[in-house]
Write a structure and sequence with these properties.
With 467 residues, the chain is an alpha/beta fold. It is built from 14 helices and 22 strands.
Length: 467
């Protein structure tokens, strides 16, 4: 079997890379170890978590907020099994959609574990032990990432669970302890809190959402605390002991040292990040170099140090985001076809799909200060936005950061309803090098939440109208 390109992994980066390559006339094949395509994102990550976030949000709306709108539905009853079926339907629809797209674009599919056997050779090892060899001009590694483990803590996906197990619980835990206040932990903690769990989040650092804008993190934590999630920051987990009759005892102590305490939980969710998945690829055999974090090292064209082998997505440096992997997949496919693929790493949105949502793109205030870049900040609260007030969704704000000299937008940060969609406007603006005045002078429909973006842009030059 001879190809122009073989892609190992069919997550968002891999399948998009394969489809784009096929569109450009390259004979392309993919190798996928799962029975279904879509990688972690579609199978046990982005898609199922968003389905549960949506369903649990609807449950809480009916349970707590419908009466405020004049809608009397009585006391809603949770059918968790049915909710999980709803989630499964969303996963199946998406994974089957990828399968269809690969067939439509005439991409050959091989199911099994892919191993690079040498220059231009990929061995596919099936579950039954059978194998076949694919010959190819180029190889793209798009195998994604795996759950990061906490030393000394065994994940059994029953009592001590990863994000995968947290998406498959067959009951609502009375007490859920989340280790890690990053995106995944806060999203899944929100799901189970809405469904009835008492949720406590333990975080080693002194803040939630590490890496995002500091002001955003502080206000977002206040909002989640008001919703009922408890936080223990600057706290490290030193042990997790699973009881013989279920549940777990979690020992924690101050990160800086101090007296330990024990917390009880029915389920412990470990969400301390993800690590590149490169197991079984044969990288050492062919001499592909990795950095001290286990990521595959590539140049600006996604090429490794071994001729003909490329890598994209979570296995290389950069944010572990599905859309970042997709853009890299398109870029490397275009480069292999002789075109000029490109990814602007300065304009990659990041979204937390809780309620309210959190979204950001570009630089944070902390990063600009560290880099010595003078900037002006404009901020507008949703409490002053007409649509937000009418909808009763006034938590949060929009913050626009612009260069003090040129007024070019350097970063935008949003906490609020539908922030994940609102951020797209400024991402497009930043891609075209827009100034805050460009956004401010663009007519925004009324009444919409997008007006808060315009007002924040106006506020950069201290001329907001509605606050």
């Amino acid at each position: 079997m001879s190809y122009d390109l073989v892609v190992i992994g069919t997550g968002p980066g891999g399948y998009v890379c394969a489809i784009r390559a096929a569109q450009l006339g390259l004979r392309t094949a993919v190798v996928e170890k799962r029975a279904t395509h879509g990688g972690t994102c579609l199978n046990v990550g982005c898609i199922p978590s968003k389905a549960l976030l949506h369903a649990s949000e609807a449950f809480e709306e009916a349970n707590k907020h419908f009466a405020d709108l004049g809608i009397d539905v009585g006391t809603p009853k949770l059918d968790l099994k049915k909710m999980m079926s709803f989630k499964a339907e969303g996963v199946a629809g998406n994974t089957k959609g990828v399968e269809f797209l690969l067939k439509k674009n005439k991409v050959d599919t091989f199911h099994g574990t892919g191993r690079i056997a040498g220059a231009g050779r990929v061995e596919v090892i099936a579950e039954d032990g059978g194998n076949q060899m694919l010959e190819t001009k180029s190889i793209v590694i798009a195998t994604g990432s795996d759950v990061a483990r906490l030393p000394g803590v065994t994940i059994d996906e029953k009592v001590v669970v990863s994000s995968t197990g947290a998406l498959e619980l067959d009951r609502v835990p009375k007490k859920l302890l989340v280790i890690g206040a990053g995106v995944i932990g806060l999203e899944l903690g929100s799901v189970w809190r809405r469904l009835g769990s008492e949720v406590t989040v333990v975080e080693y650092l002194d803040r939630v959402l590490p890496g995002m804008d500091g002001e955003v993190g502080k206000q977002f934590q206040r909002i989640l605390t008001k919703q009922g999630i408890a936080f223990k920051l600057s706290t490290k987990v030193t042990g997790v002991e699973v009881g013989k009759k279920g549940g777990a005892s979690v020992t924690v102590e101050p990160a800086a040292g101090g007296e330990a305490e024990t917390l009880q939980a029915d389920v412990v969710l470990v969400c301390i990040g993800r690590t590149p998945y490169t197991e079984g690829l044969g990288l050492d055999t062919v001499g592909v170099q990795r950095d001290d974090k286990g990521r595959i090292q590539t140049d600006s064209h996604y090429a490794t140090n071994v001729t003909g082998i490329y890598a994209i997505g979570d296995v290389i440096a950069g944010p572990m985001l599905a859309h970042k992997a997709e853009d890299e997949g398109v870029a490397v496919a275009e480069m292999l076809a002789g075109q000029s693929g490109h990814v602007n790493y300065g304009v990659i949105p990041n979204v937390v799909y809780t309620f309210p949502e959190v979204a950001s793109v570009g630089k944070t205030e902390e990063e600009l200060t560290k880099d010595g870049i003078a900037y002006n900040a404009g901020k507008f609260p949703f409490t002053a936005n007409g649509r937000a007030k009418a909808n009763g969704t006034t938590d949060g704000f929009v913050k626009v950061l612009a260069d003090a000299q040129t007024d070019r937008v350097l970063g935008v940060h949003i906490v609020g309803a539908d922030a994940g969609n609102l951020i797209a406007e400024v991402a497009v603006a930043m891609e075209f090098g827009a100034s805050s005045e460009d956004i401010a002078r663009t007519c925004h429909a009324h009444p919409t939440l997008t007006e808060a973006v315009k007002e924040a842009a106006l506020a950069v030059n201290k001329r907001a109208i509605h606050v």
